[in-house]
Amino acid sequence: MYEDLKFDLCCGARILFRNGLSWGIAGHLSVLVGPNRMIANRFGPSFATVTPGDVLTLDFEGNIIEGKGSVNDTIRLHGVIHKYNPEIAAVAHTHPPAVVTYSTLGKVPEVYDQESCFLAGDVGVLEEEYNGLASSEDRVKGCALAIGRHRAVILPNHGAITSGNNMREAIIAMVLLDGMVQRNLAVEAAGRVTGITPRPIAADIARLTRQELNGLQPTGLMWDDLIAKVRQTDPDLFASSDRDKAAQAVN
Q: Which of these, 68, 96, 128, 239, is most buried using a 10 Å CB contact count?
């Protein structure tokens, strides 16, 4: 079941890895598939190697309903998010190095460039200090409430969560967030070197630009471009899918 959703999840994982937004075997991607049901990658394979066979069907407590493998307690972060936000279809959680660096500052990044306007007014910072692994509801409830208010949430000393109506939107949001914080780090460094105070895009202009950009309906085009790149770097992921599609076409 859920083969197309599993494949998109794996594509998203490979995209995050190829863009340098994952570290080791940390992080999960999840998609809501029903009441108290989600699919998510199992514990073990990194985002660089995850395949559809590594994607499990789980309840919100992390109990395995379908699939082979195991999960660790941090999968509860996703269960709690889906429990408190049934309108959120897909969630990405990873530890992009630039985001982790920026997360120690405890502030919302400024909008300094056009691409960052995609997230204008839609980035939050969790107002809680790091309190250990995301392994229990009391530890992650704040994350769940924050992602209900913002498309992207920075977790202090930890990483980030992004959400979307599907996995494609959640992954693109994570890529955009990483670009946004990298721009902030670069601009702030330039400001210190030159002694010039950086000037962000005005908040009202940034929000207007977000509306204009979204009016172009860019998600599909952005996803197609990301997939074209990962198809070149990760042909193993696409081999079985291509064979299945060829067999269906023959039948």
A: 96
Mean pLDDT, rounded, for 187-201: 98
Q: Distance between CA atoms of 187 and 102, rounded to whole angstroms?
A: 13
Domain ranges of the chain: 3-234
Spell out the SS3 assignment of 79-139: HHHHHHCCCCCEEEEECCHHHHHHHCCCCCCCCCCCHHHHHCCCEEECCCCCCCCCCCHHH
* Average pLDDT of the segment spanning 114-130: 92
For residue 188, give both structure tokens: 């702030």
Q: Whole-angstrom Cα distance, residue 222 to residue 58?
A: 29
- Confidence (pLDDT) at 210: 97
User: Under CATH, domain 3-234 is a member of which superfamily?
Assistant: Class II aldolase/adducin N-terminal domain (3.40.225.10)
In the structure encoding, which two tokens stand for residue 214, read together? 């979204």
Look up tokens 């930890």; give the residue.
Answer: 158
Confidence of residue 248 (pLDDT cuts 50, 70, 90): low
Q: How far apart are the first and last CA of the chain?
A: 20
